[in-house]
Amino acid sequence: MYMNSGYLHNSMVDFKDKTRPLVVGSCGTYRLYTRPRLPTYRPRGRIDFQILYVAGGKAHFFLDGEDVVVTAGHMVLYQPKEVQKYVYYGVDQTEVFWVHFTGSEVRNILKSYNIPLTGHVFYSGKYPEYQKLFQEMILELQTCRPHYEELLSMMLRQLFILISRHLEQGPRLADYVQNEMEAAIRHFSEYYNTEIIIDEYAAAMHRSTVWFIRSFKQYTGVTPMQYIISLRIQQAQRLLGTSEYNVTEVSSLVGYDNPLYFSRLFKKQTGMSPSEYRKNL
Fold first, then answer.
1. Residue 73 backbone phi and psi in degrees, to 5
2. Which of 53, 95, 238, 255 could form a disulfide linkage to 193, CB 3.0–4.6 angstroms apart?
3. Inter-residue contact 68 to 93 (CB < 8 Å)
4. CA 36, 50, 184 angle in degrees (round to 5)?
5. At what angle are helices 128-143 and 224-242 packed, to 10 degrees?
6. How confident is the model over 162-190, as a mean pLDDT?
7. Could you give phi then psi for residue 218, rounded to 5 degrees?
8. Which residues have C-beta within 8 Å of that of residue 13, sequence separation ≥ 6?
9. Is there a contact between 98 and 46 (Cβ–Cβ < 8 Å)?
10. Please, what's the b/e burial string for 58-78 (b: 16 or more CB within 10 A of its CB; e: otherwise)?
């Protein structure tokens, strides 16, 4: 199991803050592969809000007395004092991101972005931008750089904006298209550090390249190659922050034989060179 999380002021205790409009209390992620199950049960709920984003696999939520299977691309919203009971199973290869937040204007902010306050589960699509924002919030909570609390609030608003944008995009893709795009995402996530030729992948799926790229972008918001680059840069960030590999080694591990090209691409994506990124950490 992989887990990564950050907590405001390093405190895992939930809290209510009415002095500011929006406050991020904690943020994290789980990827469940080997552990058989990971349950959560809070019979009295929490005193803050929580959004969970199922990025991969599926999760089981017990809502209104029923076992609801929540698949990738859905979000679950818990409001204060609502019973929280859910479980992730290793066999489902669950990947989940979560954020806890509070503030004096939370409900008005959620309403302004048309995020549903009735019910718990809503479909928001599988978009790498979501994962990137969650990872950035985790990093801010861990590093506590100047003005990070204000930046966290802005990042959470950005997440709300992206959710609102995708909720307003209209009808979902046909089920068979969604299944094919999810299969592509799983393939790219597993083999992101190898040479992936989009034309060859589309042909192997008996699809035209144009159709595949258009459908993938409609499903994720980015092209297949943009998605692969995002995966590579995210993994490079993890390696730079958690290992002693040098830049050339990191470049090779994420799929780039040319470290100079990797460094240019990394800076374009993050605004910093790999060395600067590691130094800031």
1. 100, 0
2. 255
3. no
4. 55
5. 20
6. 81
7. -65, -35
8. none
9. no
10. bbbbebeeeeeebbbbbbbbb
Instruction: Give the torsion through C-alpha atoms of 137, 143, 149, 151, to 10 deg.
Output: -60
Average of per-residue pLDDT across 234-244: 90
Q: How confident is the model at residue 170, as a pLDDT?
A: 55
Q: CA 237 from chain center: how many Å?
A: 15
Tokens at residue 214, please? Answer: 């258009």
Q: How confident is the model at residue 74 (pLDDT cuts 50, 70, 90)?
A: very high
**DSSP, residue by residue, the chain:** -EEEEEEGGG--S-----SSS-EEEEEEEEE-SSSSEEEEEETT--SSEEEEEEEESEEEEEETTEEEEEETTEEEEE-TT--EEEEEEGGGT-EEEEEEEE-TTHHHHHHHTT---SSSEEE----HHHHHHHHHHHHHHHH--TTHHHHHHHHHHHHHHHHHHHHTT-SPPPHHHHHHHHHHHHHHHHHTTS---HHHHHHHTT--HHHHHHHHHHHHSS-HHHHHHHHHHHHHHHHHHH----HHHHHHHTT-S-HHHHHHHHHHHHSS-HHHHHHH-
CA distance 29 to 90: 15
Residue 101, exposed/middle/buried by CB under 10 A (0-12, 13-18, 19+)? buried
Q: How many residues does the chain have?
A: 281
Q: Which two tokens stand for residue 94?
A: 């669950």
On the 0-12 / 13-18 / 19+ scale of CB atoms within 10 A, 46 is buried
CA distance 17 to 103: 5
Q: Are 42 and 85 in contact (CB under 8 A)?
A: yes
C-alpha–C-alpha distance, residues 186 and 207, integer Å: 17
Residues sharing a CB contact under 8 Å with residue 243, sequence separation 6 or more, in sequence order: 250
Question: Range with the lowest mean pLDDT among 74-83, 109-118, 121-130?
Answer: 121-130
Structure token digits, residue 116: 């549903």
pTM comes to: 0.66
